[in-house]
Each structure stands twice: as C-alpha cells, then as structure tokens.
Design a protein that fits this description.
This protein is α/β, with parallel strands linked by helices. It has one domain: 3-Layer(aba) Sandwich (Rossmann fold), CATH 3.40.50.300. β6 and β7 form a beta hairpin. α1 packs across α4. The protein binds adenosine-5'-triphosphate and magnesium ion. Adenosine-5'-triphosphate (ATP) binds next to α1, α2 and β7.
Length: about 170
C-alpha cells in the first residue's frame, strides 16, 4: 500500500506552507527517523520546502541551501514518550546535485548519515543510485510561478506520516 498527497502551490509562500505542514505531521508522528527525498529541476523549490519544514521543527537562525556544503546538520528536540523527556535527533539536509555515481556518495562518507537514526532530507536523490528506498518521495513540478507537488510514501512509516497528515485535514488525496 502506498499513500499519496497532491498539492498545488500558487507561490513560494504556499510551498513554504506545505513544508510547515510536513513539519507538523512529522512532529505529530513523534519525529521518526526517515529518509525524505525531493525531486525537481533547479529552482523547483526543494530547498524552499525543506527550509520551512526545519523552521517548523524549531530550527532558528539561517537555514542555508546545502548546495555547497553538501550536508547541513541540525539538532532537533523531540519528546521521547517512553523516557518522558526530550531527546535529540539529528536532521540532515543534503544536496547531491554534484554527484554522479553511488561510489562517490559512499566515498564521501554519506552512507553513515543514513544510519536509520536520523531525519534526512535529500535533494537530487537521482544522482546517487545506491540510495536506500525513501520513506517519502516528494516531486515538485513548476508551472509558471506555481508548483505541483506530489508526495508518495515508500514505506509503512511514510504511509503512516501521510495518513496522519491527511487525517489532520491538511491535504486531499
Ligand atoms: N510556487 C513556488 N514554490 C517554490 N519556490 C518558488 C515558487 N515560485 C517561485 N519560487 C522561487 O523559486 C526558487 C526556488 O529555489 P529553491 O532553492 O527552493 O529551489 P531548489 O529546488 O532547491 O533548487 P536547487 O536544485 O538549485 O537546489 C526561489 O527563489 C523561490 O522564491
Ligand atoms: Mg536546493
């Protein structure tokens, strides 16, 4: 089973709004470790969306595009329901535009980042063929200033996230 969410974002603030909704859905699910990939041409709005998600998850200060550094790490606080206290989880915002093979990805040590304990947002995942299957696959297609955004689950965790999001009345489909 897969779950899908489709949204039309008329301008960049609508795309940011969608990113914030993703942040709220992630928090409602207890901020699980997930691999979230974002497809879309240069300037589609991948960074715009992730920036709004990170902001919603409590990141303060400047949120840079990872185009140059490749990886930007963020420490997030989440409530551990079993321990009944807040714990830290690392979010990684990654841009693979400059990669061309799975060897490069592994040589750069980025395999360690996908340790199953982190929340990873990956732009240009198609540049790293060896990447594990994503829990959530986001596709952004420009239509003039507007963007068609589709979100597909690739795992039970991704499906639960979209179901939680849809049942919060945040989206259709
Ligand atoms: N509806 C929209 N949604 C998102 N961004 C939009 C929209 N309309 C215009 N924009 C503009 O498009 C640009 C998107 O840039 P952004 O860095 O988010 O793209 P990107 O997909 O991450 O590109 P890259 O592949 O180069 O990393 C921004 O300048 C933003 O203001
Ligand atoms: Mg980007």
């Amino acid at each position: 089973m897969t779950a899908t969410l489709l949204r039309h974002c008329a301008d960049d603030s609508a795309t940011s709004q969608l990113g914030a909704e993703l942040g709220r859905a992630l928090r409602a699910r207890g901020l699980p470790p997930l691999l979230i990939v974002l497809h879309g041409e240069l300037g589609a709005g991948k960074t715009t969306l992730v920036r709004a998600t990170l902001r919603e998850l409590g990141v303060r200060g400047r949120i840079k595009s990872p185009s140059y550094a490749l990886v930007e790490p963020y420490n997030l606080e989440k409530l551990d329901l079993e321990l009944k206290r807040s714990v830290q989880i690392t979010a990684y915002h990654i841009d693979l535009y400059r990669f061309s093979s799975s060897e490069e990805w592994l040589d750069a040590g980025l395999g360690d980042v996908l340790d199953g304990k982190s929340l990873c947002f990956v732009e240009w995942p198609e540049r790293a063929p060896g990447l594990p299957t994503a829990d959530l696959d986001i596709r952004i297609t420009p239509r003039g200033e507007a963007r068609e955004v589709s979100l597909h689950s690739g795992s039970p965790a991704g499906e639960a996230l979209i179901d939680c999001w849809a049942s919060a009345g945040a989206g259709a489909g």
